[in-house]
Amino acid sequence: MEDQTSSNLIKSAPIKGIRIKRCFVTLLISALFLGIFQVFTMPAGALAFQEEVFSIWPAEVGNQAEDAPGGFFYLITEPGEEQQISVRIVNLTEEYRTIEASIHVATTDDQGRIYYWGSDEPADTTLPHNIEDLLIFEPYIVLEPNEEAYFWITVRMPIMPYQGVLAGGLVFRLAEDSFHEEDLIGERRVLAILLRQDGFVESNIVLEGITTEVLGGQSVISARLRNVAANFVGQMRITTTIRDNTGEVVFTNVRHDVDMAPNSFFHHELGLDGLQMSEERYEVTFLLESGPYSWSLTTQFYGTGTFLEEPEPEPEPEPVQEVEEPVEPPQPEPLDEENLNNILLFLMIIGGIFLITLIVVSIVRSKKSRIDNFEEVHGQILATLMSDEEAKARSTKREVKSISKDKVAPSEEGDVETLFLDQEDFEEIDSLDKEQERTTDETKKEADLKAKDLEKDANPKAKEIEQKEKELERKVKALERKAKEIEKKEKTIVAKEKSIEEMAKTIEDKAKTIEDKVKTIEDKVKNIEELEKEVERKEREQKERVATKKKKKPLERKKEEWDIEI
Length: 566
Description:
By secondary structure, the protein is of the alpha+beta class. It has helices at about 1-40, 175-180, 335-405, 415-565; strands at about 55-60, 75, 80-90, 95-105, 105-110, 115, 135, 140-145, 150-155, 165-175, 190-195, 205-215, 220-225, 235-245, 250-260, 265-270, 280-290, 295-300.
């Protein structure tokens, strides 16, 4: 009974330890998965050290301008022609990526730079054709891991010819970035596309208007400059000169390296550096110089009224002894959102590494503890068995000794008999010792077998636990794959819906244009019918006049004949 209870206790102890360690490992794994999920659900562009996701490069085209450098499209086109161009896109990651493409008219921002990313401002009215209406393509492309694909674009030139350059930007960005409300940095690329036709035109810049305002007690003027020609203006220098009503120059400024896109505008804003202006009329001249071209633009405006009369000099106060105030230490600048996100990601990575190390250490310790437990159990069983056998051997020896003492007699005649009895007793003792050795060997073998059975019982359980953990990991991976496939399908469905909506809009626009053309044709037909009616009426009137003239002529002749006869 004692042996059974001790074996039950020995079996139950490692099983409880294994359960506790299993719970601890599952908690650590769940915490690690939560940290990884938090990292992957962070908005795109929030990481300052984000790696490059994809790259783009324009494919070679036959009508590319000869003097154009590489890296963008510069096409020589003809009216009404249609052609296919392509962009090579490479996925640089080990994941599926959806790339969104869009086309925008090139504009000029208020810093005097050409902007290809798209602007909220409407296109300039002098633009001969909007490049956004001339390029046709699918808005989305899905790339497999490390895939290289070609993005095809149809360029359909209008029938109406033009002279100069149409400029725009093809913008490629990750589709998941476009779904965020805030315009984060994200992963995006731009590819300029220029469509030239019928040679070059001379640039022409005009001044559309000027406004004044006061900001922080300083006068500020803003001039709206427009490039009304279909040509770029580069490396332009703007010299601003302001004169008061007496013709005296009160302000000058020079601005360098200003670029303008074709058929675009920007606001040339200047702070007047503390110039005190009255409310009288001023004259401003903008001298624009770009290579061999120059434009002098002059206009007048009224001052902001910031001029102040000089106050009378006050008597100087008596010098007061200054007291040095303790300088406060500079307060640390608060961290912005980007730095906080980076710090959070760094801490989460460190926590993940720490959890992984804990898991590895716990697994190693659990294996060592199992081996130690088996060795302890084996030693305890051997010790218990050895102690039982020694006790039995000692008891038998004591009994043999007591029996031999009782059988010994004091007579000389029985000496021979006592000797024989002693010899038999020794033989019996030797046989008992041999039997004890055999029993100890058998008990050792039984203990070894029991230990092996315990190891076999524990090892399958550990293997079952590992197999279950592997199955769980496989199920989690399968679920993640299914979620990714569902997301891809949703994105493709959204992309198809958008393309269908765009096609429907284009069809509606075409139908409207056809209706307008039909109406114009009907109006022209009506006008032609009216003209024909007028022509017929005039012919009739002319015929009637001719007929009346013919009737009148013979009468006149007769009258003449009468006169001659008379």
